[in-house]
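Exercise: predict the fold of this chain.
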Amino acid sequence: MPLGPAVLLLVVFLAGPIAYCVYASFTNMALTGQVGTQFVGVANFTRALSDPAFRSSLGLTLVFTFLSAIVGQNILGMILALLNRSSFLVVRAFCSAVVIGAWVLPEVVVAYLWQAVLGDGGSWNSIVGFLHLPTQEWLYDNPILAVSIANIWRGTAFSMLVYSAALSEVPRDIEESALVDGAGPFRMLTAITIPMVRRSIGTNLMLITLQTLSVFGLIYTMTKGGPSDKSMTLPLFAYNQAFIASDLGYGTAIALLLLVIGAIFSLIYLRTLNRSETL
C-alpha cells in the first residue's frame, strides 16, 4: 500500500503521543514523588474547571488571542495588504521585506527584542521620557498588552501574505466599474473587496487564532506569566503544573482543554464560512 509508510509515521509520531496524553489526563501521573499511577477519571478536568487560577488563565488566553490575533494581526495584515496593492513596486518590496523579516525571527529573539523596547529602561521609555511624557512600565503594569504587541509585530506577516494573495484574485474591472458608478474607497472596500475575500478572511482568522492560542515561548521569555500571573496564559499554566509542580496528569488535562477550545473556535469559523457560502 503506497500510503502505508505515511500512515505509520502519523500513528507513531502524531496519533500515538495524542493518545498517550489523553490517557495521562485521566490519571494522577506525576514526575516525582510517586510510586505508581492510578486512574482518576475526570477528576483533573473537574479540578481545572473549579480552579480560579485556571479560569484566570483562560480569560487571559482569550484576551491575548483577541487582541493579538483577531484584532491586531488580522486587521493590520489586511491594511498592509491593501496598501501594498496600491503602492509602487519599491514600496511593496520594502514593506514586505520588513514585515516578513519580523515573521521569520525566532520567538525567543522577538521576546528579547520587545523586552528591550518595553522594559523599564527600554527604548520606549527613553523616547517618551525625552519628550517629557509619562513613562510606562509595560511588563509590570500591562504585561498581557505587552506580549500582545510583540505577537502582533511578529505574526502580522502571515495575515498580510494571505490577504495579498486573496486581493490579487479580485478583478480590477469590478472595482473600476464601482468607482465609475460613484462608490468611494470605503464603500468599495466594504461592499466589493471584503465580500470577495471573505473565505480568505475566515481561513486566516482560524489559522492565526489556533496559532495564538498555543503561543508559549514568546510569553515565557518576556514575562514567564508574571508578574502575579497577570500574563499566565493556558500554555504557560499547563507547563507550570506539569513540569514545575510535577503534576503531569493535571497539566495534560489543561492542555487537552486548550485543544478543545481551539476546536470550538475552528467549528465557529467553519460554520461561519459555510453559512456565508449559502448567502
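Check your answer against the key: The mean pLDDT is 87.
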